[in-house]
Amino acid sequence: MTPLWWIVVPLIPLLAGVLLWLRPERVAPWYWLACVPALLLSIWPAPALEWSLLWPGASWGADDLLARAWLGFSAVLWACASRFAVADLSDGRHLRRFWLFWLLSLTGNLLLVIAQDAASFYIGFSVMSLSAYGLVVHLRGPAPRQAGRIYLQLAVLGEMLIYAGMLLRMHEAGGLLDFVDWQSIPIGATTAALLLVGFGLKAGFWPLHVWLPLAHPAAPAAASAVLSGAMIKAGILGIWRFLPAQDALLQQWAVWLLAIGAISTFYGVLLGLLHHKAKAALAYSSVSQIGYLLIILALGWHQPEARPAAALMLALYGVHHGLAKGALFMGAGLSAHARLKGWHWVLMAIPALALAGLPFTSGAAIKVLLKDSIKNSLPEIWLTVLSVGSLATLLVVARALWLMRQAQQNDELPVAQASQILPWALLCVTPVALPWLWPEMREALLHSLPGYALWAATWPLALGLALSLMAMRFNWRIPKALEHLPNPARAASIRFKRWMSRPPKPAATPTNRAQRWRKLERRWNRFFQPDAVAASAWLIAALLLLGWLT
Fold first, then answer.
1. How far apart are CA 219 and CA 223, in angstroms?
2. Long-range contacts of 462-466 (CB under 8 A, 24+ apart)
3. 256-287: pLDDT as tens digits
4. Of residues 482 and 519, which shows the higher confidence score?
5. Which backbone phi and psi does 115 adopt, to 5 degrees?
6. What is the radius of gyration, based on Cα positions, of the chain?
């Protein structure tokens, strides 16, 4: 295949935006086709495209497993979400605006995945991050407006930090932009801190998660699916690409990053259990799952010789979580607007239980790989942490499913449309089908089938299901004191908005010579107020006579 095929990946969504000026309700059902080139190139990758016409070092391609895996699952998720959104936006309001921001976000997401240099990655990342604001605020109203404001404030802050870190990294690399060159060049503490915080704001791990639980419930279901399934992982991919594989500084920081990942894992579950909206609970579940991705990153820095294994786990976990979480967010949208049948709930349970490590799913394969890596790198207490994490994940997804079920009490819900059920169902079955389609995941799944491995994966699920059934049996409710927790991020955002919206000080009126003469004339007129006009006429006549005589 010719390298020029890589231009098609971000170009097709951009060209599709031109069709919006025709009739969006007719062209939108076909927008999922814009993801097909990315999916085909993830399966049959072409050689990398060296495109120095853009800037020195510009390169697009997918030479490693991580890039191909993330390009493939991003294409599948965006395609299914695009088809799902057509029926979800059947009211026809602001279609052009939604699909414009949708296609721009898709363009940026695909570009950053295939980018092999920092400039291309940053452009794709910026286009995706800023365009996603239009998806967050699409439904309008106080909640989307507030969520969009916080999202945009932190997105711009993240862009500034990443840009500053990228410039410092370029200086350390002698002006080079290629990621391959950056992997062998040591990084400074300031550069690493800027990049970790900047990309962390997008990834949404604790304590940089504050925008995520607000944006997901406010956005349409399809937008929430791609936000959680694909976009937040761009932050993890950015950390992996921009920071070197073997670095003494990062090896020292790995312990702290492991701690942050563990905190994020349980913090997201705890807060998710306290919310009474399904999409909010799923959003906090994403905070928890991103903690696992951060742990994988930290393991790669803690033991540089295990970098290839960390890359494999990152690819597998990204695909597994992206597709499963996308299915759950779409399911939350379906449960709120359509009547679901019994088999719909069976499908919904597959990605939910897969996130908790259900045997014979992609979740079980990921847990086996992660446990093997932790066993060889960290104390055994981390294996207990991982098992308790599976239990916690099951509790929060069970809470989300129960909240979805509560939404079905409305007797006026219409029947779900086939155009929404089909793409959603496709995502729901991927946790079962994926291990048999992907050799690396199939091998890990086979290692999870012995009796001791099945027991290790099953007891957290059994305990979690028992606790969930007990909570429903005894009608457990959130304590009143915990229903409305303070939100420091929201308060800070409102304070910042008010500070930026202060009325400006009145501009100082400049004084000049003409104004001074004008004031002197007014005083003269007031002095001769009875005969001001006559006095002025005699004065003008005297001046004219004087000018004529001279």
1. 6
2. 463/391, 464/356, 464/390, 464/391, 464/394, 464/395, 464/398, 465/394, 465/398
3. 888 898 888 888 888 888 887 888 888 888 88
4. 519
5. -70, 135
6. 29
Q: Name residues whose C-beta falls within 8 Å of residue 391's C-beta, 6 or more positions apart in sequence.
A: 356, 460, 461, 463, 464
Query: d(Cα 295, Cα 264) in Å, to the nearest integer?
Result: 10
What's the pLDDT score for residue 548? 46
CA distance 304 to 126: 30
Q: Are 14 and 34 in contact (CB under 8 A)?
A: no
Contact (Cβ atoms closer than 8 angstroms) between residue 213 and residue 151: no
Higher local confidence (pLDDT), 423 or 4: 423
Beta strand 59-60 with 49-50: parallel, antiparallel or unpaired? antiparallel
246 CB contacts (<8 Å, ≥6 apart)?
A: 183, 184, 304, 307
Mean pLDDT lowest for which of 38-52, 299-313, 447-461?
447-461
The tokens for 201 are 């704001």
Residue 443 β-bridge partners: none
Q: Are 138 and 223 in contact (CB under 8 A)?
A: yes
Structure tokens at 483: 């229903």
Q: Could you tell me which of 351, 332, 346, 350 has the C-alpha nearest to residue 420?
A: 332
CA distance 127 to 109: 8
d(CA 521, CA 542): 17
* Beta carbons of 299 and 255 less than 8 angstroms apart: no
Contacts 24+ apart (CB under 8 A), 414-418: 414/337, 414/338, 414/339, 415/338, 415/339, 416/334, 416/338, 416/339, 416/340, 416/344, 417/87, 417/338
H helices within 274-306, ranges in order? 278-302
